[in-house]
Structures are given as structure tokens and as C-alpha cells.
């Protein structure tokens, strides 16, 4: 905040960012409590301290530790395997359950109380969705804010499926395999239910449009299968170089256009052994390969 003043009974505030951002930001106001911490993500410079803040309604402390830990682990994983984090802070800000979503904007994540702050999570029987959703939204600081995607078919595979994969890898670091499989089973069930209800012919993941059960649920399953087939290290190598070539938050996009899912597939195929190229191609470019639950859930 640069300055504030009052005129004719109205309050005015003047803010300025410390670097260029895309024209995409929220205005959120309430009487907040604030949980604060700091971290230095492994992939950032040694003195690049990131301020972590969670703005919340007093009495809604249930999942703050889960969300804070997820922010730290996510920043560490993504900065290590993809690229350095680009801002000096990251803030989660609670808003009422009139809506049930979270959304990542430059350095800030408005987050509904319904899907984070107020969730009743039993670690013995539940999937820690407060942790996962936080990791997913932090991932958008890379997929969507460091790298924007062209507004064409496959856009949401880049923005949402890659955020699903990124969050799933952080989740895998935190929780045992049984919890990962429980999460994947939830994705399978939601995908199959939505597929049965949909009246639209299913498009391949690489050409997905606005079908959230494809780019969220199926996308998570496909990317997890990909890292099982070719290895997490190879998937991350592809993502790192895809991001490096196409990131748009510092420089004009490559070839004066934004990245597409076909551009992403070039990097995937580059790290895929010849013996698996047909299998990987089918995962992303076909629909009929994805019919058996035990193909993806162990």
C-alpha cells in the first residue's frame, strides 16, 4: 500500500505491485486473524525468503496447520523441480461459503471456508483435501501465472491437469501410498459418475474443453499413470523445460503466442522411451484406453 486517505466520508487506498503481474487480482476485506510464517524454498536463491500468511475468521483454526504445511511443501517441491517462486509472499484468504472454490491469483489465494477452513478431516478415514487443495492452488502460481496457456482446446489440461499432478506429487511426499490410492479412487469415482451423466461425447485429455471431470479427475489419473510409466524425475524434467521455454510472466511468450497442450506433449514425448510412446500417446490422445479402474488404481 502506497497511501490511504479519506474524502467526503469515503476511504481511499492506493496499492502498487513490486513487479509486473497479469491483470488478475482480487479485492478481499474482512476483520481477519492472521497466521504467519516464512520459508526459503529450496529452488530459490539462498536469501529469497517468502512470507506465508493465512487470513482467517476467528474460530476457524481447524485446518490452518495443514494449509500452512502444504504451502511450505508445495513451494519447496515446485521451486526445486520446476522453477523459482516469483513473488516475495503468498497469502491464503478465507471467504464465506456462498461459493465453494479456491482460486490462485498473483501471490494470493482466495479460499472458501467450505473447502478448507471448516472441513472436518479424520486422518484415519478421510483424504486430507485441505492439504491437497492448498497444494493445487499454490501450483497455479506456476501453471497459469508463470506459464499462461492459449485459449484453445487443451488449455485446461495445461492449467488444471498440471496443477493436479503437481499437488499429487506433494501429497505423495506427505502421505503414505494407501492415502494416495484413496485419493486416486475418489478421482476415478467422480470421473466415471460425470461421464455417465454427460450427454457430450468425451474428448481426449489433450483436447479437453470445459469438462472439469476430464481435466481434474481424469487428468490426475493420467498424470499419475504417466509418472509410474516413465518416472517422476522424467515427468518433472519435461515440465521444467516446458515451463522454461514457454513461461510468460517475465518475457514475451515464445513465437509471440501462448503454449498449447500439443507443445506440452512435445516435451513429454522427448523423455518417454520409444517402447512406451504409443502407450503415452493413447493416454493423452485417446479416450477408449481409459476404461478399467484397475488400470489406474492399485
CATH fold-level name of the largest domain: Neutral Protease, domain 2
Average pLDDT across residues? 94
Major beta sheet summary: 4 strands, mixed
Number of domains: 2
User: Which ranges are low-confidence, i.e. pLDDT below 50, for 5 or more consecutive residues?
Assistant: none
How is this structure best described in words?
This protein is 41% helix and 12% strand. The chain is α/β, with parallel strands linked by helices. The chain folds into two domains: 122 residues, Neutral Protease Domain 2 (Neutral Protease, domain 2); 140 residues, Neutral Protease, domain 2, CATH 1.10.390. The strands form two sheets. The chain has a four-stranded mixed beta sheet, with helices on one face. Strands 1-2 form a two-stranded antiparallel sheet. Strand 1 and strand 2 form a beta hairpin. Helix 2 crosses helix 3 and helix 4 crosses helix 5. It is globular, with a radius of gyration of 20 Å. The mean pLDDT is 94.
List keywords for this structure.
alpha/beta, Neutral Protease, domain 2, globular, 41% helix, 8 helices, 298 residues, four-stranded mixed β-sheet, two-stranded antiparallel sheet
Outline of the structure:
The protein has 298 residues and is α/β, with parallel strands linked by helices. The protein has helices spanning 64-81, 129-139, 155-174, 177-197, 212-230, 232-246, 261-270, 277-285, and strands spanning 3-7, 10-14, 33-39, 50-56, 89-95, 108-112.
Layout of helices and strands:
Layout: E1 3-7, E2 10-14, E3 33-39, E4 50-56, H1 64-81, E5 89-95, E6 108-112, H2 129-139, H3 155-174, H4 177-197, H5 212-230, H6 232-246, H7 261-270, H8 277-285
Parallel strand pairs: 4-5, 5-6
Antiparallel strand pairs: 1-2, 3-4
Amino acid at each position: 500500500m502506497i497511501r490511504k486517505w479519506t474524502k467526503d466520508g469515503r476511504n481511499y487506498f492506493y496499492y502498487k505491485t513490486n513487479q509486473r503481474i497479469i491483470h488478475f487480482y482480487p479485492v478481499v476485506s474482512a476483520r481477519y486473524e492472521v497466521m504467519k510464517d516464512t520459508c526459503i524454498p529450496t529452488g530459490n536463491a539462498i536469501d529469497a525468503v517468502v512470507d506465508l500468511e493465512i487470513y482467517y475468521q476467528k474460530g476457524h483454526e481447524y485446518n490452518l496447520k495443514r494449509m500452512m504445511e502444504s504451502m511450505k511443501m508445495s513451494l519447496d517441491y515446485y521451486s526445486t523441480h520446476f522453477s523459482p517462486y516469483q513473488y516475495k509472499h503468498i497469502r491464503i484468504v478465507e471467504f464465506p461459503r456462498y461459493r465453494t472454490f479456491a482460486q490462485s491469483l498473483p501471490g494470493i489465494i482466495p479460499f472458501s471456508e467450505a473447502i478448507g477452513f471448516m472441513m472436518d478431516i479424520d486422518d484415519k478415514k478421510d483424504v486430507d483435501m485441505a492439504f491437497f487443495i492448498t497444494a493445487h492452488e499454490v501450483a497455479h502460481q506456476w501453471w497459469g501465472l508463470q506459464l499462461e496457456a492459449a485459449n484453445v482446446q487443451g488449455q485446461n489440461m495445461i492449467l488444471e491437469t498440471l496443477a493436479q499432478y503437481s499437488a499429487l506429487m506433494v501429497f505423495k511426499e506427505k502421505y503414505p501410498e494407501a492415502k494416495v490410492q484413496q485419493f486416486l479412487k475418489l478421482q476415478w469415482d467422480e470421473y466415471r459418475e460425470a461421464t455417465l451423466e454427460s450427454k457430450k461425447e468425451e474428448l481426449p485429455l489433450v483436447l479437453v474443453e470445459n469438462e472439469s471431470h476430464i481435466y481434474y479427475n481424469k487428468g490426475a489419473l493420467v498424470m499419475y499413470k504417466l509418472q509410474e510409466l516413465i518416472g517422476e524425475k522424467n515427468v518433472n524434467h519435461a515440465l521444467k523445460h516446458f515451463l522454461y521455454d514457454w513461461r510468460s510472466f517475465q518475457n514475451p511468450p515464445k513465437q509471440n503466442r501462448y503454449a498449447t497442450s500439443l507443445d506440452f506433449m512435445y516435451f513429454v514425448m522427448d523423455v518417454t522411451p520409444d517402447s512406451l510412446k504409443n502407450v503415452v500417446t493413447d493416454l493423452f490422445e485417446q479416450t477408449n484406453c481409459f476404461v478399467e479402474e484397475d488400470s489406474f488404481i492399485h
